[in-house]
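User: I'm curious whether this sequence folds into something compact or stays loose and floppy. Could you predict its structure so I can see for myself?
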Amino acid sequence: MPKPQSVSCVENGSASRSRLNGAEAIVIIVIVAVAAVLAAVAGMTVPVVLQVLAGSGLTAVLVVGLITGTPVRGLRAALHALLSPVA
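Assistant: Here's the prediction. I'll summarize afterward.
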C-alpha cells in the first residue's frame, strides 16, 4: 500500500511579495504627507484628518470599483469593511 503524499496547506507555489514597488511606496508617502500638511498647516485635529483620509479612501475604492467593473458584491464588501465600527 503506497504511502500518501503530504501536501502543505500553507505554501501555494507563488512567490510572496514582501516589498512595495515604487508606485505603492509613492502613494503611501503622499498620503502621509497630506495628513501631515492637513494637521500642521490647516490646523485640523487628528480625528478630522483621519475622517478626511477615510473619506478619500472610500471615494477611491468606489471609483476604482466602478471603472474596473468590480461586481456589486465586491463593492458592498469594501463599503462594509470601511464603514463598520472597529472592535
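Summary: The two ends are 52 Å apart (CA to CA). The chain has three helices and no strands.
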